[in-house]
């Protein structure tokens, strides 16, 4: 209805997706002997899986801090830490199939099924406000 024909899906390179038919193996070890998860190409594997079961093209991009707009702020770092801690809590609780989201000032679990709920619009007032500054 809004004329949008795209979506953005963010996948952590260290994610293990048991339903993914072509989940890549970890890459070469780093200097500390840990597998380089960033070399796995999980984003590409997810894009391929989406194309197999959907009727549209899926592209993947590996994004670094600079491509996202610059060095992360203190807020970015704290938010990422809070979301990561909450994600680990969900795993410990056995609550899979959920993602973390910022609602107000709280990090809350959200079922992944909401992603299938259809198109969600950005608040137009918030969008217009952002246009003033950007």
Q: Give the overall pLDDT as a whole number.
A: 80
Number of domains: 2
Biggest sheet strand order reads 1-2
Distance between the termini: 25 Å
Helix content: 25-40%
Shape: globular
> How much beta, percentage-wise?
5-15%
The number of helical runs is 3
How many strand units?
2
Description:
The structure is a single chain. The chain has 134 residues and is α+β, with helices and mostly antiparallel strands. The chain folds into two domains: 1-62, no CATH class; 65-133, no CATH class. It is 31% helix and 9% strand. The chain is built from three helices and two strands. The chain has helices at residues 42-53, 74-92, 124-133; strands spanning 98-103, 106-111. A two-stranded antiparallel ribbon has the order 1-2. The longest helix has 19 residues, at 74-92. The two termini are 25 Å apart.
Any key phrases for this structure?
134 residues, alpha+beta, 2 domains, two-stranded antiparallel sheet, 3 helices, 2 strands, 9% strand
Set out the fold topology.
Blueprint (H helix, E strand, L loop, with lengths): L41 H12 L20 H19 L5 E6 L2 E6 L12 H10 L1
Antiparallel strand pairs: 1-2
């Amino acid at each position: 209805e809004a004329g949008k024909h795209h979506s953005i899906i963010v996948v952590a390179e260290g994610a293990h997706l048991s339903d993914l038919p072509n989940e890549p193996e970890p890459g070469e070890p780093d200097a500390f002997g840990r597998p380089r998860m960033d070399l796995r190409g999980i984003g590409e594997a997810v894009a391929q899986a989406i194309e197999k079961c959907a009727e549209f093209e899926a592209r993947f991009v590996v994004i670094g801090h600079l491509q996202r707009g610059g060095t992360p702020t203190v807020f970015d770092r704290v938010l990422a830490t809070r979301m990561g801690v909450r994600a680990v809590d969900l795993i410990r609780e056995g609550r899979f199939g959920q993602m973390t989201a910022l609602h107000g000032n709280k990090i809350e679990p959200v079922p992944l099924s909401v992603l299938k709920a259809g198109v969600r619009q950005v608040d137009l007032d918030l969008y217009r406000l952002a246009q003033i500054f950007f």
